[in-house]
Every structure is written in structure tokens, then in C-alpha cells.
């Protein structure tokens, strides 16, 4: 019976991240609009967009290959699996030990790999520019992320997310310099990875500075819906990741019963709301950078991560 | 299977070479020669597979080489593991050549050397004394040199072969000196005698540096890597696969055998040297790869990167062993050995793919390719699998070995030495950078070659290659997935080899729930390739089913949208160099001293604008060019000695004799 219950909880996690992701995107958009004194669309607008895209026909470029048609599903699946492995309302999920934080990053890397290939498939200049810039951002953001993982893993003594969350729940962790550096670096990486301002603009089209939107320019209909949903999932994943490591309060432990799960879900909703508000506030108060400023931004994140790791190599108590 | 099978297979391969010479250039001989190579490799590989787990090492002495000494051969767990790697690569290359060899323009220059090259690599791994090792090492170098020279009509191939020969001779010289120091004054030349004697610390350090130069130049450690990007494109594609995927592994075997087995207890600073070199090699190799337009050159530089990753693992193992943390050394060495196997699999696959593209289009320059996914579906799919594996994407095999290397790095704060405490995190950063740059590199390699629209007419006429080549590529692609999904099997399989070198092993992996791999403890880290694979496969199928049930099925083909301005000309696509431009701008200013110059004609002038990019190879300019210049200078000066009269020659000899006698007199 335990196995079935475990799998049910894991399934609930998968459904939860899928259902909440568009809502979170809608929330951020609404908050940004309100901060700019606009009314903004309803927070449920992303669901409507997705349904509309699903109902539309797909217009496929003449020389699109099978890779172009398969990529959206692979991107979505890899992102979904990664999102399902990050604890949202409960730790100790049954499949959490099938992949640690490094594997989660690599899964997101796979999604990026196929997205960049899809950008090159049609053979247009916009797709190419998007892919090329996305890979540049990725080559800097991913090592920064790995250094952040090193920092966390050296503090906690584990690369497993569940163990990390449980370790952080214990009051003895205290304030550490290295954890502070890791948090700042993680926020920077999250901004870059999700194509947010100041690195990229999620609301733009037809602008030479765009990255993510340029790669998916040729997508339409159900394929576009998959990609939109995947990027919503990815944004939510990063918020969940930051929340799970740095604010693990309210997470249900393994086998604590329905009430704990309900509290965990409510806490997660609260964290999403706070995260969304902070993101919207940040994005409305900063201007977008030129593309070749991004390496400096991410280089700073990489250095912070490396510094955190070095501190821990030098002394375990920093 | 009787243990002498390994040597028997070598004898068969030598025989096949003779047969190839006799048969000459007749068409029918291709299938026969490579078919026999395939059979010999499979048998030798199966034998090696059985020997890995065998308790007893098998040894024999053949009455060859120097009289009254004989040639010693021995297969222990480490040799057996590397024999397996060699013969796996050899079998795949033979199978591929059964088809590819028919397009060969000069078969009589390839077929006789191919089997002896395989035999040479087998012999190096089996050698059990210094003479045999050096002899077979040189044999391996010379046969591969002959293969690099196969297409000797092109001047660049001759240059590549010359540089390869020079670097190979330099490497052998270093190894010769290293063995000279190891054998000691008593001349204990057999490995057993060397193992028994403990060299003094100073001598041991000198040996380490010589082996780093000798084996490192063969493996492609920066800055000794210069021959790889020249020689690998020059050789026929299956030979490139062998040189890149297999011969560099034989070099790594040589390094492991001498440094971890023969040399005795390591000093901690050795590992600092090895790790730093490994980290620099990994990052520089992939950056060079990102700038290449020749597909095979790109793959050669990517080999440099992977050799760097392997050396990081070996360096960590040395660091742990120097601090008596044998269980951690076992983890680091397992990571390195797993990457050895993985790299052989995916790099052979990628070179086969490049060879198929070459035989279908006649082009190696990726700027002229594009759109091959429509013309060569199987090649492009297998190349995609190889690219994803080498870019370390889960659930394929490249990810597992890099993940294990990261886990080994996470164990190293326990190491007390300050030099290592500062170097290891930095190398960890370099490794992470190399891994992600490899992703960008292979998005570029696959995307520009196989996706988009054809950039030259040759691509339009391309056709899928023959069945043998396809079979070899499909087989290796399947192995990429297999090794990625069930890494626990492989980790358990290589336990005896790891035990031999580190005195400890990783815990058994097969007994775990769902076949997870757990380097230390489950609460610390675990990874399950099988579950990740099933998880991805399930969620993909759920998504596909759901979408096909819910969403509209309508699909219309139309011209590309491209923001409303689609252009029919394929030159408007992103090219390989434009894809690399952002990365070149970020890293190139430092590493390549990259300079871009834009010539913009005045308004009204109808000349096209020009963008010129200049990249400099600093290692070549700062290290090799001065050495070459010095040799030329000296040769110029010494050239005069060629034109002396007989009287002067005689007096020269007389003076030399006198001075030597003086030296001897003063010495004693």
C-alpha cells in the first residue's frame, strides 16, 4: 500500500506543477501590469492562450524536419520531469532519489539543447540568432549553477534535493556567507535561464535583442503550446527550487499524512505569490541589458558560486 | 576460452595484413579483410570481457624481441578492461569499414595497415616489460602514421603526418627515458621487477613528468595536442575513429599503468599537476572545437576536451591516494574509466557520422553542408544521439561519467593540502564550463551540418550510406543509451580494474533498488539512469497521447515565416561561424586573441561590406614556432658540415675522439 501512496503523492506533485505553472506566469504578468499602473489581463489568461493554441492548426515551414516536430514534446517532457523532481509541497518523494540536483540541471540542459536545435532547423536567421545566443547564455549559466550546487552540497553534504531541504529545516544551519553568495548567484541564474529582464524580454517579438522568442518564432498551434507550457514550468521550477532550498518551511515530510500535505500546498502557493511579487518588482525596476553585457552579469554569478565553493573548501564553517 | 586467445587474435590480424597485401586493390577483398578484422576484434573483445573478472592474471613469455630475454605479456584486470575498449572500438571500425572501405580511393594504402594498427594497440595493452611496451608503442605509432599518410597526395596531409611523426617520436623518447629511470641500474626491465623496486622521490617525480609528456602527447594533453587536429582529419574516417576513440585510450592506459601501478605511492603535488593540466585541456579543447569549421577537426579537438575530463578523474584519484582516501580514489578512478569507455563509444560514432557525410557529399566543411537530415535520416539520427551523449545529456552515457567526476570533486574538501584545496574547486568550475561548452559545440556541429537548408549543391545529391556503416552507427548509438541507462552494470564490471590501481572499490551497485547508482550513500547522492529514461519516455508518451486526443490535428505546410520576410537564399541562414560569434567574443579575446575587422564601404559605394575574423593559435605561436625556428637556425648553421674536405672530416673525428677520452678521464 505504501508504494501506491508514494506513487500517488509523486503523481500529485506532477499534476500540481503542471496545473500551477500557467497560473504563476499569469500572476507575474498581472503584477507587472499593476506595477505599471495598467489593468493587465486576468491571471488565468495563460490557460486561455494555451487552449486557443491547442485548437489552432499547425503551420509548418516547408523544410521542417522530424526534429522540429518532435522537439516540443521532448522539451516539455524533460522540463516536466525536472519540475516533478523539485519538492514543492513535500520532500521525500518516491522518485526524488532517481536524480539529484546535478541531474535536474542536466535535464534542463537537454531541453535547452533541443530548443536550440529546433531554432536552427528551419534555416532562418532569426532562429539561428536565438539559438546562438541561448547557447552563449547557457554556457555561462550552467557552470554557475553547478558551482551553486557545489556550495549547497558542501554545506549539506548531499546533492539530493530532499536531503538539502530537510537539512535546511534544521535550525542549526544558521547564516553562512557561502549560502548568501549561493542565493544571490541562484537568483541571477534563474533570471537568465528564464529569459527574464534584464537578460531577455519575455514579452517581446520582432526585436533584435530577443533570445528565447527568436528560437520559437516558427512554432505555432499545439507545438507552440507545448513550448509555452514548458517555459512556464521552468520559471515555476526555479521559484520552487529557491523556495525548497532557502525557504523550506511548510514542506511535508515523508508520510506525514494528508493534513501536512495540505499545509505544504498552501505554503507553496504562498511562496509562489511572494516569488512572483519579487520577480515582478525586480523586472519593472530594471532596464534590459545589451546582449554582450549578459556575459558580465552571468560571469558575476559564476564568480559568486565559485567563491562560495572555495570558501567551503577552505573552511567548513563559512 | 583459453587465455592465449588475445595473442592468437593479434597473430590473425597480422596474417590479415599479409593477406591484404597479396589481394591488393581488388574490390572483393574489402569485405574479406575487414570482415576478418571484425571477427578477430570480436573474439579478442570477448576474451578481454571474460578476463576482467578473472581472479588470476594470465601471463606468458614469447621467445621474441631481444634474445634470452623474451617478450613478456600479461593480462590483468586493468589490461583486460582496456583490451575490451580497444577491441570494441576496433570491431565497430571494422564493421563500418566493410561498407566505407569500398569508397576508399587508395585501398592498398589502408587495408594492410588497418589490421596491424589494431594488433599494435592490442599488444601495447598486453605488454608486461619495458622493451615490449616501448616496441609495441612505437609499432602502434608507426602503423597509424602510415594510415595518416594514406592520402599523401595532398600537401596538408603530408604536413600532418610529419608533425604526427615528430610528436610520436618525442613521446616515445620521453617514455624510453622514463623506463630507463624506472628500471634502475640493475636493469630490471620487466614490470614485475619495476613494481618491486621503489624509486627515490626525486626519480619518481622525474618519471611522472616524463610519462606526462610521453603518454600525454599521445593522448592529446594541452599543450602537446597539436598533432590531433592535423592527423585525425587526414586519416580515413574509420581510422580517425580508431585514433581518436581508441589510441588515445591506449595512451591513458600507459599513463595509468606506469603512474598508478609501477611507480609506487604518489606524492600529493603530482595530482595538482595532473588535475590542472586536465582542467586546462578540457576547457581549451572544447573552445578550440567551437571555432572549427572542418567537422573532423572539430571532433579531434573535442577528443582533447574529453581526454582532459579523463585526466581530471585520474588526478583526483592520485590526490585521494596520496592522502590514503582509497575509497574516494576508487570513485574518481571509476569515473575516469567509465569516461574512457563512454568516449570510445560516442567519439567513434561521431567520426563514423562525419565519414558518412564525407562519403555522401565529399565535404568536411560544415559551412557548406546543411539540411542533411532530409537526405540521410539514419546517419543524422545516430549523430544526434552521439552529440547528445557527448554533450552529457541524461539519460545517455556521457552524463553518468561526468556526474561521477562531480561527485568525486565533492569529496575533496577532506584533502588537507592547500594547493589542492584551491585548485580542485577551480578545476570543478572548468569542468562544468567544458561540459556546457561541449553542449554548445555539438548544437553547432549537428545543427549546421544536418539541419536548416542545404548550403551547397553537393548536399542535394547526397544519399544515405551503405548498410554496414549504418549498422556500426546504430550499434554504437544503442550502446550510448545502454551505458547511460544501466551504468551500475558497468561500474560493477570494472571493479577489479579499480581495485588493482586504488586498493579499494566502489560499493556494489547492482543490488540497489531499481538499479540506481550510489557512489557513497543514498542520502548523499544517487542517480538512476533507468528511472530517468522511463520517466522521460512515460511523460513524453503521456503528452503526445494527450495532445493528440485534445488538440487540433490540422497541419499545413507553408513557407517559413521568418518575421514576414522569408528569403529563399540559403546564405541568409545562420552559419557555423556566426553561430560561434557570441562565444568567440566572450572567450576568444583571451584565448585566441580574436580580432574582428569590419570594412564598411561609404554610402553609395556598391562594394559589399566585409567582416574579417583573425584567430591566433597561441600555443603554436609561443611554444612550437620558437622551437621549430631554433631547429631551422641550428640546421642552417650545421649545414656547412656537409661540405667539408676529407682532411677536415678526419680531423673532426680525431678531435671528437680526443675530447671524449678527456671527458672519460676526468669523469673517473
From TrEMBL, chain A:
It is found in: Membrane. It is a multi-pass membrane protein. One of its GO terms (molecular function) is lyase activity. The chain crosses the membrane at residues 12-29, 73-95, 101-123, 135-156, 168-192, 235-252, 258-282, 294-314. It holds the Pfam family NADHdh. Keywords: Lyase, Membrane, Transmembrane, Transmembrane helix. InterPro entries: ComplexI_Subunit1, NADH_UbQ_OxRdtase_su1/FPO. One of its GO terms (cellular component) is plasma membrane. This is Formate hydrogenlyase. It comes from Hypericibacter adhaerens. The lineage of its organism: Bacteria, Pseudomonadati, Pseudomonadota, Alphaproteobacteria, Rhodospirillales.
TrEMBL record, chain B:
It comes from the Bacteria. This is Hydrogenase 4 subunit B. It comes from Hypericibacter adhaerens. Coiled coil: none annotated. The keyword NADP does not apply. It is found in: Cell membrane; Membrane. One of its GO terms (molecular function) is NADH dehydrogenase (ubiquinone) activity. InterPro entries: ComplexI-like_HydComp (IPR052175), NADH_UbQ_OxRdtase (IPR003918), ND/Mrp_TM (IPR001750). The keyword Hydrolase does not apply. The chain crosses the membrane at residues 6-24, 31-53, 73-98, 110-127, 133-151, 163-183, 203-227, 239-256, 268-291, 298-320, 340-360, 372-393, 422-447, 468-491, 527-547, 649-667. Residues 127-411 form the NADH:quinone oxidoreductase/Mrp antiporter transmembrane domain. One of its GO terms (biological process) is ATP synthesis coupled electron transport. One of its GO terms (cellular component) is plasma membrane. It is a multi-pass membrane protein. Keywords: Cell membrane, Membrane, Oxidoreductase, Transmembrane, Transmembrane helix. PANTHER family: FORMATE HYDROGENLYASE SUBUNIT 3-RELATED, HYDROGENASE-4 COMPONENT F.
Amino acid at each position: 500500500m505504501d508504494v501506491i501512496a508514494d506513487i500517488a503523492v509523486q503523481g500529485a506533485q506532477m499534476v500540481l506543477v503542471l496545473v500551477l505553472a500557467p497560473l504563476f506566469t499569469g500572476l507575474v504578468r498581472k503584477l507587472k501590469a499593476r506595477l505599471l499602473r495598467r489593468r493587465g489581463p486576468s491571471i488565468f489568461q495563460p490557460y486561455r492562450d494555451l487552449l486557443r493554441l491547442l485548437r489552432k492548426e499547425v503551420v509548418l515551414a516547408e523544410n521542417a524536419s522530424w526534429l522540429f516536430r518532435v522537439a516540443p514534446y521532448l522539451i516539455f517532457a524533460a522540463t516536466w520531469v525536472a519540475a516533478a523532481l523539485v519538492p514543492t509541497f513535500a520532500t521525500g518523494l518516491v522518485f526524488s532519489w532517481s536524480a539529484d540536483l546535478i541531474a535536474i540541471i542536466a535535464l534542463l540542459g537537454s531541453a535547452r539543447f533541443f530548443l536550440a536545435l529546433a531554432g536552427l532547423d528551419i534555416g532562418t536567421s532569426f532562429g539561428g540568432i536565438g539559438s546562438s545566443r541561448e547557447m552563449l547564455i547557457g554556457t555561462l549559466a550552467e557552470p554557475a549553477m553547478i558551482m551553486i550546487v557545489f556550495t549547497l552540497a558542501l554545506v549539506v553534504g548531499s546533492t539530493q534535493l530532499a536531503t538539502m531541504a530537510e537539512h535546511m529545516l534544521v535550525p542549526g544551519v544558521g547564516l553562512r556567507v557561502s549560502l548568501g553568495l549561493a542565493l544571490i548567484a541562484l537568483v541571477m541564474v534563474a533570471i537568465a535561464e528564464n529569459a527574464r529582464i534584464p537578460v531577455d524580454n519575455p514579452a517581446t517579438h520582432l526585436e533584435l535583442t530577443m533570445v528565447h522568442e527568436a528560437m520559437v518564432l516558427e512554432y505555432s498551434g499545439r507545438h507552440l503550446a507545448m513550448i509555452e507550457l514548458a517555459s512556464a514550468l521552468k520559471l515555476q521550477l526555479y521559484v520552487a527550487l529557491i523556495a525548497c532550498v532557502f525557504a523550506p518551511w511548510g514542506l511535508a515530510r515523508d508520510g506525514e499524512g494528508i493534513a501536512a500535505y495540505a499545509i505544504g500546498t498552501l505554503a507553496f502557493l504562498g511562496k509562489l505569490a511572494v516569488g512572483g511579487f519579487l520577480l515582478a518588482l525586480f523586472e519593472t525596476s530594471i532596464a534590459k541589458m545589451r546582449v554582450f553585457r549578459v556575459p558580465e552579469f552571468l560571469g558575476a554569478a559564476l564568480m559568486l558560486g565559485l567563491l562560495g565553493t572555495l570558501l567551503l573548501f577552505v573552511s567548513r564553517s563559512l | 576460452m583459453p587465455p592465449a586467445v588475445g595473442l592468437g587474435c593479434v597473430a590473425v590480424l597480422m596474417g590479415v595484413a599479409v593477406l591484404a597485401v597479396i589481394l591488393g586493390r581488388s574490390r572483393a577483398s574489402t569485405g574479406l579483410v575487414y570482415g576478418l578484422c571484425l571477427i578477430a576484434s570480436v573474439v579478442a573483445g570477448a576474451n578481454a570481457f571474460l578476463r576482467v573478472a578473472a581472479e588470476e592474471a594470465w601471463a606468458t613469455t614469447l621467445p621474441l624481441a631481444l634474445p634470452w630475454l623474451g617478450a613478456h605479456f600479461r593480462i590483468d584486470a586493468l589490461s583486460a578492461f582496456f583490451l575490451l575498449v580497444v577491441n570494441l572500438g576496433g570491431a565497430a571500425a571494422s564493421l563500418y569499414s566493410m561498407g566505407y572501405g569500398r569508397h576508399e580511393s587508395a585501398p592498398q594504402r589502408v587495408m594492410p595497415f588497418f589490421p596491424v594498427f589494431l594488433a599494435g594497440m592490442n599488444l601495447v595493452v598486453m605488454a608486461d616489460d619495458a622493451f615490449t611496451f616501448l616496441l609495441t608503442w612505437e609499432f602502434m605509432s608507426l602503423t597509424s602514421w602510415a594510415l595518416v599518410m594514406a592520402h599523401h597526395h595532398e600537401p596538408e596531409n603530408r604536413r600532418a603526418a610529419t608533425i604526427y611523426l615528430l610528436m610520436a617520436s618525442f613521446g616515445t623518447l620521453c617514455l624510453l627515458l622514463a623506463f630507463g629511470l624506472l628500471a634502475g641500474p640493475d636493469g630490471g626491465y620487466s614490470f614485475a621487477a619495476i613494481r618491486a623496486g621503489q624509486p627515490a622521490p626525486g626519480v619518481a617525480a622525474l618519471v611522472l613528468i616524463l610519462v606526462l609528456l610521453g603518454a600525454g602527447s599521445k593522448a592529446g594533453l594541452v599543450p602537446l595536442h597539436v598533432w590531433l587536429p592535423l592527423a585525425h582529419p587526414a586519416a580515413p574516417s574509420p581510422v580517425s575513429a580508431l585514433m581518436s576513440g581508441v589510441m588515445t585510450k591506449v595512451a591513458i592506459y600507459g599513463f595509468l599503468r606506469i603512474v598508478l601501478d609501477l611507480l609506487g605511492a604518489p606524492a600529493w603535488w603530482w595530482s595538482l599537476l595532473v588535475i590542472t593540466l586536465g582542467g586546462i585541456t578540457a576547457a581549451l579543447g572544447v573552445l578550440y572545437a567551437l571555432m572549427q569549421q572542418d567537422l573532423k577537426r572539430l571532433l579531434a579537438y573535442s577528443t582533447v576536451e574529453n581526454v582532459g575530463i579523463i585526466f581530471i578523474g585520474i588526478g583526483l584519484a592520485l590526490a585521494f591516494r596520496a592522502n590514503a582516501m582509497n575509497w574516494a580514489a576508487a570513485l574518481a578512478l571509476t569515473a575516469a574509466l567509465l569516461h574512457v569507455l563512454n568516449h570510445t563509444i560516442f567519439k567513434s560514432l561521431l567520426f563514423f557520422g562525419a565519414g558518412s557525410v564525407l562519403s555522401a557529399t565529399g565535404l568536411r566543411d560544415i559551412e557548406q553542408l546543411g539540411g542533411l537530415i532530409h537526405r540521410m535520416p539514419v546517419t543524422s539520427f545516430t549523430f544526434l544521439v552521439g552529440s547528445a551523449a557527448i554533450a552529457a545529456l541524461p539519460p545517455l552515457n556521457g552524463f553518468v561519467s561526468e556526474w561521477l567526476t562531480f561527485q568525486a570533486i565533492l569529496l575533496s574538501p577532506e584533502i588537507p593540502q592547500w594547493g589542492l584545496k584551491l585548485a580542485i574547486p577551480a578545476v570543478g568550475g572548468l569542468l562544468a564550463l567544458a561540459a556546457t561548452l561541449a553542449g554548445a559545440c555539438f548544437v553547432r556541429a549537428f545543427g549546421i551540418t544536418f539541419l536548416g537548408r542545404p548550403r551547397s549543391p553537393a548536399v542535394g545529391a547526397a544519399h544515405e550510406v551503405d548498410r554496414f556503416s549504418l549498422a556500426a552507427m546504430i550499434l554504437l548509438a544503442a550502446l550510448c543509451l545502454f551505458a547511460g541507462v544501466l551504468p551500475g552494470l558497468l561500474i560493477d564490471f570494472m571493479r577489479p580494474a579499480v581495485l588493482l590501481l586504488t586498493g579499494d572499490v566502489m560499493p556494489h551497485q547492482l543490488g540497489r533498488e531499481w538499479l540506481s547508482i550510489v557512489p557513497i550513500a543514498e542520502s548523499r547522492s544517487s542517480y538512476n539512469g533507468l528511472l530517468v529514461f522511463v520517466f522521460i519516455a512515460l511523460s513524453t508518451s503521456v503528452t503526445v497521447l494527450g495532445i493528440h486526443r485534445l488538440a487540433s490535428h490540422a497541419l499545413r505546410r507553408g513557407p517559413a515565416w521568418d518575421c514576414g520576410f522569408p528569403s529563399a537564399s540559403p546564405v541568409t541562414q545562420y552559419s557555423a561561424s556566426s553561430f560561434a560569434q557570441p562565444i568567440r567574443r566572450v572567450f576568444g579575446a583571451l584565448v585566441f586573441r580574436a580580432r574582428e575587422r569590419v570594412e564598411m564601404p561609404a554610402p553609395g559605394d556598391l562594394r559589399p561590406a566585409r567582416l574579417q575574423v583573425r584567430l591566433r593559435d597561441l600555443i603554436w605561436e609561443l611554444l612550437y614556432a620558437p622551437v621549430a625556428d631554433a631547429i631551422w637556425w641550428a640546421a642552417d648553421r650545421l649545414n656547412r658540415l656537409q661540405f667539408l674536405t676529407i682532411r677536415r672530416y678526419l680531423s673532426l673525428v680525431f678531435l671528437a675522439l680526443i675530447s671524449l677520452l678527456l671527458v672519460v678521464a676526468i669523469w673517473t
